[in-house]
Every structure is written in C-alpha cells, then in structure tokens.
Design a protein that fits this description.
The complex is a heterodimer of chains A (657) and B (189).
Chain A (H helix, E strand, L loop, with lengths): L21 H5 L1 H14 L2 H4 L3 H4 L4 H4 L20 E6 H7 L4 H5 L6 E4 L5 E4 L13 E5 L2 E2 L20 E8 L3 H4 L6 E7 L8 E8 L3 E10 L4 E12 L14 E14 L2 E14 L9 E15 L5 E15 L4 E17 L3 E17 L6 E2 L3 E16 L4 E12 L3 E15 L2 E12 L3 H4 L1 E3 L3 E2 L7 E15 L2 E19 L9 E22 L2 E16 L18 E11 L3 E10 L10 E13 L2 E8 L5 E3 L10 E3 L1 E9 L1
Parallel strand pairs in A: 4-7
Antiparallel strand pairs in A: 1-6, 2-3, 4-5, 6-7, 8-9, 8-34, 9-10, 10-11, 11-12, 12-13, 13-14, 14-15, 15-16, 16-18, 17-22, 18-19, 19-20, 20-21, 21-24, 22-23, 24-25, 25-26, 26-27, 27-28, 28-29, 29-30, 30-31, 31-34, 32-33
Chain B lengths: L2 H19 L9 H13 L4 E2 L12 E6 L7 H6 L3 E2 L2 E8 L10 E4 L7 H8 L5 E5 L9 E6 L2 E6 L1 H6 L3 E2 L1 H6 L1 E2 L10
Parallel strand pairs in B: 2-4, 2-5, 5-6, 6-7, 8-10
Antiparallel strand pairs in B: 1-9, 3-4, 7-8
The chains are: A mainly beta (657), B alpha/beta (189).
C-alpha cells in the first residue's frame, strides 16, 4: 500500500472535504467551514468524492470523514440478546443536557425524575425511590462501579464528567448479574468515555443559562509515540428549583471537578490510567436537608492485551473515595478498592467464552449528626469476591445460546449464584428474536442492615438478599433500510423484597425484613427513522405493571407502595434536523405517567435546541428545557417540601481545536 | 390497570411505528459513504496477515470479492485500479454466491434471496477470508462490520471470527474499530 498514512498530524480537523475536481477544489475553504451541515443538504453531485481521491488518505483519516447517512439507524442494532439502548455522543450533544441523569432521559428504558437541584431518582423497570435511592440498578463509568455500598444505589450528584468525552452510554434494562455482578438486578448503565487517542487538542464548553451556568475546558496532547493524554476541568452552578407557590427552594449547588485520562498503546497492549477529583457545595439555605458538601476522587488503571489467537485479557484496578458532609451533621466516607480481570477466547468455531474474577473491598465510616439515625457499627469493611464464566454457543447458523453463571461471595449473605441463559435467533439478516431467563440478586447494603434510630428503627439483622427471576423476550429489526425497531417485554418475579416491619411484641422499634414478593410486567420499545438523510426521528415508549404483595406472616407497616413509586407508562419523541448554513434543530417531547404515592400528576414536557456552526471550530446553541410549563413536579420526597423543575433557557458556546 | 387500558398502551407504540413507517424515506445520498467504505475495503488488507499458502506465487492476485448485489456502484473498481497489496495486484471479482472454493482474500457480502449474509458467512467460515458486512444492509456481522458512528464510517471487528479464519488483524486496525465478541452484554454476539 502506498505510504500515505501517518504523514498528517493526529490533530487534523475531523472533517475532510475531498476534492473531486477543479470546481470542488475551488470551494474547498468554504466547504471546510460549513461541511458538517452542508454534507446533508448539498446535492449528490457536489458531494460525491471519488474513491480515487480517498485513496491518498490514511485509514485513520478515512474513519474521520463525515458521511451523513440513513444507515445511521442501523447502528443501535447490535446482536445482544438483551434490551440494550445506546446513547451516542452525538445524541448527548444534541440533547443539550449538562448532567448524566439529564442525559439518561434519552433512554426509553430508564425512568428519570428530578427531586431537587441536585438529587435524581433513576431506575429501570420500576422501584424508583422517593429519596433518590433506587437500589436495583448497577452503574459503571469506564468499568468502575459507582453505586454506593451505603444503600446500593447511586449518588448522582457526585457522578459527573466532561460530557463531550463520553463516547456512548449503554443502557441495558433487565438483569446483568452474570457478567456484571450483584445489584445489576433491573438494569446496568455502562458509561464509556473516549480513549485519550480519540479526543482532540482543545475543547471549551461554556453554558450560560437561566437556571445553570457551566464552564468546562479540556486539553489533550501526545506524550510520545502511542501515548496520548487529556486533562479537564469544569465548574458549574446548578440553580435552585421552585416551590408550588413559585418561591425558590434555595437549594442551588456549586460543583468543581477535574480529571485526566492517559492511554498508551504498544503492540498488542493497551494501558489506561484515569482519574477524577471533585467537590460540590450546597449554597442555599442551610436548613435545606440534603445541603452540605460532597467531595471525592478516583483513580483507575486498566491493562488490556490482545493475543494473536484472537483472545483478550483485561485487568482493571481502581480506588474510589467519596465523602458526604451534610448540614444535619452526618459525615459519611466510603473508600472502595477493586481488582477485576476478564479473559475472553474462542474454542473451535462454535464457542466464544468469557471467564473472569473480581475482588472488591469497601471501607466506610458513618458519623451521625445530632438526633439523626446512625449506622451501627459506625465503621464497616465489606468484602466482595466473584468468579464468572459464560459460553456463547453457535447452535446453528442462525441460533445462538449464551449460558453463564456468576458466583459472588459477600460479607452479608455469603455465596450468591447468578445464572443466566440467553437464546437469539436471527430470523433473517434484518430480524432478530431473543429470549432470556436469568436470576439476579441485590445483596444487602448498610442501610438495610445497620441503620438505627433508637426506639424507632433497629436495623435489619436478618436481612437477606432480594431476589429476582427475570424472563424476557425481544425483537430487533430493520423494517426498512431507514427504520429500525426494538421491542422487549419482561415478566419479573421478585422474592424477599425489603419491608419495614413492627417488632414483636411491641410495634417499635421497627426492623427491616424481606417479606414482600410479587411480579412486574412491562414492555419497552423504541424506533429510529431516517425520514431524510438530514432528518431523523426517534420514538420510545415503556409500560410497567406491578403486582406486589406482602408475604404471609409479615408485620409490615408501610405497604407495597414503599417498594417504589413508578409511572405506568412513559413515552418520548425526538426530532433531529440538520439544516443548510450550519444550522441544526432538535425538538424533544417527553410524557411521563402519573405517580401514585406520593402523588405526582402526569406531565408532558418539551425541550428544543437550535445550534449554529458559526465557524469551523465554533458551535453556538440556544437550548430551551421544559418549555411547556413554567414549572412542573417530577417526584416527591415525603420528608422535604416538594421541589418543582422550572422552565429554563441556556446559551452554549462550544469551541474545539 | 384494566386490560383495555393496557392494550391501548401497548398498541400506542405500534400505531406510532405504523405512522412512522408510512413516511417515505428515499432520496438519501449515500455516495460519499460508499466511496469511503470502498476505500476501507482494500485498505484493510494492509493491516491483516493471511496464513501461509494463501497466495500461490508472489505475483498472484489479491482477490477482492463482492458477493450479491453491489452497493458500491463502481467505486471499488475506482479505488483499487492499479493498486497492490504487497506485490499482489488487486483483482475485483463480483460473485453471485460465496463458496468454500471462492478463493477471496477480502469478501464483501451484501446477501441476496439466493444466499443470505449468514449463509455466505457460513460458506467461507474457516477459510482464509476476511469477511466484511454492512450494518446498512443488516445486523448479521462478518469479521468486519461497517457501522456509522457520529456520522462517520466505522467498523466492528470480531477478532474471534478472524482467528477462526486464521487471520491476524494488526493492533492498529483493532484500535481503530470497535471490538465485538468481548462478551459484555452490550457487545456480545
């Protein structure tokens, strides 16, 4: 091959206008400035690049040429026998969202509700919690589990990153225990950032809004052959929500964060080192309950090797520290240390295997405030060890069966088994059907077993793991070259769900037990349509029905509503248009059904965004969020006054080099 | 929820789908996309090692085959004319079906009523063939599978499938594509 590769610098612009003749060459400077939008609107003749001209580009440069394509709709179609929705970098940018939970609203298979300026309730397939403590979802950022061992849920206010660096977010609804471990009960959110090799030299992202303000700067450069790094810093101020009477909730937050990532690739080895450090402070009235200071940091190192036989080894270790100091006097610190390894290989032409093991230690300290509940013991070290294996077997040309099991040992309940079987049938090249049966568990957390409030609550000394047997079926296919559809349905059978019960013989103190059971059913579906190559529509819908009951012999005091407050349906529709002269227009409608206890009415909201590629490296956009109402309620935490989300406008400038 | 209400809610997405499907979606221009894909097809060759004996002589041709309808409309010929892989001149061959004896070094499979993509992949499984498929055609993936990511042509690489066909893909190419078959749910086969 002629050595045209590698002669250009890595930092070249990411779009190339490829000269097709003298006429096009004349227009090159103009095309460079406007290409991203013009690519869609120019006539075919002007846009055709001859393959002969493309030959002189390196393979990396080829991969950087923008092609606006109807086959984009084919991209979310992967072959996983699971309900996977992928949020792409492009979709994130076009949503205008500036926090991870806001981005997650893009996934039709998640339920996202905002409780106050800084607290979100996020779940899949139900069981969302009024205090923002949904506990059946596993969340990872670049392989690092970010759920808190205090309550097996995620403190979303502590999870931020330089949003532009997110490559994609894979949202898997349904159990993922076999590969991902305990707590992947109702879903897994896998946030994957770009390699430092894939991010450019400079990005500055400044947002000035009626509600939030944000400034983010990221710089990247090479560190010798095969090695590149990036560093980022961001500062943001999240504005207060409003009460039903229109007054401010005074719960705004400041957040400062910095981080880095370095990737080194040498032969068949890849090394990644990354970390983040943050500090957030509530700046509203100190009487506001969750207000206080959060701080923390993490460092992660990953080594991956590709062997010549096609097998892969991956080893990751990380350390994560987080601290929450609340005005109520509670001071909670958690340190996590983890080592994980995974090896995948094939045997014969029919078997693709993965085996792995992991070990994780969490070390927490929980200092109580005056008059508040506390954890007893106030310090605890927990250990989690696991091994897992999965074999994906090609039964025939079109039929694949994946069976696997994870064995996890935890400090509370000992050994737990999480088996999983998934069958997929490629009916045709455009149609796939799949079905699965899996068991998943949520192992106890500190709040289940050790939370004490003298005379009121006496913890859950006998609390066991919550248990799920999940059954799923799904369809994924291309109905036409420009229309893709995914439908999945589930029937989940739960056992030993958490209850809070009266003690015998007196009612108080209450104790935490496992006396709820029942089933849930639902569907999740989404479709992508390329109406034109410059106009894409996406629609999503999910419905959920819960039949929970208390087990015989219970002394429950809260009832089944305690297990979660979930809408029976939600739907969304997004339209993305690339218009001439560098304009892009996005409109996004969301409809969420009503919540029962505490009651929240159903709502319809709309976001709209108009973006203009003002220059080659500068994009300006105006985002309107929650435009349909002056304010709307999404969720209620009964222990604090409800906060409503106001309408807001944001002006964003994004400069890249 | 009453079963009637549930039915209505379940029907809503179907109605939406029918509505969306009714909107015609023609007129999309894909010429640049296919020019890029055609160029990738022969550039892949520089990053792949074929096993011993894949070429009878040093000057034997490098066979680049398109099986089924050709979505490239002449762009491959344009891309490869006068090009070599090492010392092997590239020869473009159009085939109706993939056979075990097709003797293709790179095979782009578009599938037809005659032979689906999966059947074609099966036919050359275990032979020293770099199979290439296209997500614009369907989800059935060969060793290399073109996808569009952020409006750019990218590809999924199934390195296990490459190993089955005794091909060694360079780490540079592996780093450029997205790995599949690494068995985490988002990527598993």
């Amino acid at each position: 091959m002629p050595a045209t590769a590698g002669e250009r610098e890595a930092g070249d612009p990411t779009t190339y206008a490829v000269p097709a003749g003298p006429q096009v060459r004349f227009w090159l400077p103009v095309a460079m400035a406007l290409l991203s939008a013009l690519a869609a609107s120019l006539s075919a003749q002007e846009q055709i690049a001859s393959a002969r001209d493309l030959r002189r580009l390196s393979i990396e440069e080829l991969a950087q040429i923008k092609v606006t394509s109807v086959s984009k709709v084919a991209e979310p179609l992967n072959q996983a026998a699971a309900a996977v929705f992928v949020i792409t970098n492009d979709a994130i940018r076009r949503s205008g969202a500036n926090s991870i939970p806001e981005v997650l609203r893009l996934a039709p298979n998640l339920q996202v509700a905002r409780l106050d300026a800084n607290t979100y309730a996020v779940t899949a397939r139900g069981f969302n919690q009024s205090s923002g403590t949904a506990n059946k979802l596993l969340v990872l950022i670049d392989g690092r589990a970010i759920y808190s061992p205090l309550f097996s849920g995620t403190f979303w206010d502590a999870q931020r990153t330089f949003i532009d660096d997110i490559d994609r977010i894979e949202v898997i609804s349904g159990p993922g225990g076999t590969l991902w471990g305990a707590n992947a009960v109702n879903g897994v959110i896998n946030i994957i950032t770009k390699s430092a090799a894939e991010t450019g030299d400079w990005t500055v992202d400044a947002r000035l809004g009626s509600l939030d303000r944000r400034l983010g700067v990221r710089y990247g450069a090479a560190l010798g052959p095969g090695t590149r790094f990036r560093v980022y810093g961001l500062g943001l101020r999240q504005g207060s929500m409003v009460r039903a009477d229109g007054t401010s909730t005074d719960d705004s937050w400041n957040h400062l964060q910095g981080g880095f990532r370095a990737d080194r690739s040498q032969g068949s080895d890849t090394l990644t080192l990354q970390g983040d450090f943050y500090r957030g402070t509530g700046i509203g009235r100190p009487a506001f309950l969750p207000s206080g200071t959060i701080s923390g940091g993490n460092v992660s190192a990953t080594w991956a090797r590709k062997f010549s036989g096609g097998s892969n080894l991956r080893v990751q270790t990380y350390f994560d520290n987080s601290r929450r100091l609340l005005v109520s006097g509670i001071d909670a610190t958690v340190d996590q240390y983890a080592l994980e390894t995974q090896y995948d290989f094939s045997r014969g032409s029919r078997h693709a295997l993965v085996v792995g093991a992991g070990y994780r230690i969490t070390d927490d300290r929980f200092e109580r405030g005056p008059g508040t509940a506390f954890l007893s013991p106030d310090e605890r070290t927990l250990r989690f060890a696991n091994v897992f294996a999965q074999d994906a077997i090609a039964l025939s040309r079109r039929l694949k069966l994946a069976v696997g099991i994870k064995v996890e040992d935890n400090s509370y309940t000992g050994v737990e088994l999480m088996p999983d079987a998934r069958l997929s049938w490629s009916v045709s090249d455009r149609t796939m059907l799949w079905t699965s049966v899996a068991r998943a568990v949520r192992t106890p957390s500190r709040f289940d077993t050790d939370l004490i409030n003298p005379g009121v609550l006496a913890g859950g000394p006998d609390f066991q793991s919550e248990d799920l047997l999940a059954n799923e079926v799904g369809y994924r296919g291309l109905l036409s070259p420009s229309l893709s559809l995914s439908v999945s349905a589930f029937y989940n059978v739960y056992d030993r769900l958490r209850t809070v019960e009266a003690s015998t013989p007196a009612v108080f103190p209450l104790v935490v037990r496992n006396n709820m059971e029942g089933d849930t059913q639902g569907v999740e579906t989404w479709a992508n349509l390329a109406v034109r190559d410059w106009w894409h529509l996406s629609a999503g819908f999910s419905a959920l029905r819960k039949n929970l009951r208390l087990a015989p012999g219970n002394r429950d005091v809260f009832g089944v509503a305690f297990a979660g407050n979930d809408p029976r349906y939600q739907s969304q529709l997004r339209s993305s248009m690339d218009l001439p002269r560098g304009f892009a227009v996005d409109v996004w409608l969301r409809n969420v059904g009503r919540l029962k206890r505490p009651a929240v009415p159903s709502y319809l909201e709309a976001d709209a965004r108009i973006a203009w590629q003002a220059a080659d490296k500068l994009e300006l956009s105006l985002d309107g969020q929650n435009l349909l109402h002056e304010r709307h309620l999404e969720f209620v935490n009964p222990s604090i006054l409800p906060s409503e989300v106001p309408r807001s406008l944001t002006l964003t400038a994004r400069w890249t080099r | 929820m009453s079963s009637g209400a549930l039915t209505r809610r379940l029907l809503r997405p179907i109605a939406l789908t029918v509505l969306l499907a009714a909107i015609p979606a023609h007129g999309a221009d894909r010429s640049l996309e296919y020019a890029v894909k055609a160029t990738f097809l022969y550039k892949f060759a520089s990053f792949v090692e074929w096993p011993q004996g894949s070429f009878a002589r040093e000057s034997s041709p490098f066979n680049l085959c398109v099986v089924g309808p050709d979505p490239f409309a002449g762009r491959i010929q344009e891309a490869v004319s006068g090009q070599n892989v090492g010392r092997h001149p590239i020869v473009l061959r159009q085939l109706a079906r993939a056979e075990r004896q097709s003797d293709c070094h790179v095979m782009f499979i578009s599938g037809s009523a005659n032979q689906s993509v999966a059947e074609a992949l099966e036919a050359v499984s275990g032979t020293a063939t770099l199979t290439v498929t296209d997500s614009a055609i369907g989800p059935t993936a060969g060793i290399m599978h073109f996808v569009i990511v952020d409006d750019r042509v990218s590809f999924d690489i199934d390195n296990a499938a490459a190993a089955r066909n005794r091909l060694v893909i360079s780490s540079k190419l592996l780093a450029l594509g997205r790995r599949v078959n690494v068995a985490r749910p988002g990527n598993e086969p």
